[in-house]
Each structure stands twice: as structure tokens, then as C-alpha cells.
Input
Amino acid sequence: MRQLYEFIFEKPDIRKLKHELVQSLLFKDLTPKEIDVVVNKSNLRQYKKGDHVFFQGDPGNALYVILRGRVEIERHGQKTALLASLSKGMFFGELSLVDDSSRSATAFVAEDAILFCIFKQDLQQLVKHHPRLATKLLWNLAYILGQRLRVTNERLAEK
Output
């Protein structure tokens, strides 16, 4: 709880939060002023080990960046498949920002975590009021999604 308090209320830690965000590829090439805008439009959430961030089939409405801890992504069907184990600086839930589909997998907390959240409505406000900033974010997101798709295609081709 102390870390969350520090991120929210103490100025030195806000600087640390901004520093941690620019380490993520999602925020690559954003200026300090643009990072300020993103931080002001976003939320921090704290989760305990074993908590679920969302469940497969839930409506999607946010992207999450891991600031602390570890989150695992599972897909449930006839068998449960671990899709990814994500840690600091990584993000998930991004498809909810670009489509209206339900969550394609479940995200649960494997280690106590602090997550930086960008909700779809916040991104829409960035597009409206800060189009250059939103374009950078969306371009970074498109690049990362393209890289993930390329890796997935390569793995499938190997099988």
C-alpha cells in the first residue's frame, strides 16, 4: 500500500512513475510534457497476488502497464493455456483500446502488482484534445502489435 501512496501523493515518486513509463515501448518518444498529459489522464491500481485484473469474456475497456509485480495471461477453453507471463514495463489489454470485443483471455496477478491503466475513454479524449500525442501512442501500439503478430506467425510456422 505504501508504494501506491507514494506514487499518488509524493512528488518525487511521480517523477519516478514518469521515468518508469518512458521505459515502456508504449511511451517511446513521448516528451516529458506528453508524459505529464498521459499521467493526468490515467489511473493507478494495486492488486494482490491471486487477484484477477479481468476475466476472459469480460468487456474490454483498458490497457494496463505493469509498474510492479507480475501478471499472467491465460486462455480458457477445453484446456487452460498460459499465454504470457508479464513483468515490469510490459503491458496487456491493449486490444480493448482498438475494438469493442470482449476480453480474449484472463489476466491474473502472480505477484503483488501496481498497474498503470489507460481507459478507452481516456484515449478517446487524448485523440480529441491531444491528437499529436495520441498519434504517437497509437503508432507505438501498432508497431508493438505488429511485432507480436510477426513472432506469433514465426512460432506457428515452426510447428
Notes: The chain has a mean pLDDT of 88. Residues 57 and 103 are 5 Å apart (CA to CA). Residues 131-158 form the longest helix (28 residues).
